[in-house]
Amino acid sequence: KGFAIDILMNLERDLEFEAEIYLVEDKKYGVYDKKLKRWNGMIGDLVDGRAELALTSFEMSSARQDVIDFADAAFMYHDRVIIMPVKSSYTSHDWFGFMKPFGTHLWVAFVSTSVVLVIMVWLIDMYSPYGYKHHFQVFTLRDSFSDLSSTVFKINLDDVTARSPSARFTYAVFSFGTLILISTYTANLMVFLIEKKVEFPISGLHD
Question: TM segments (predicted)?
Answer without folding.
Answer: 106-124, 169-194
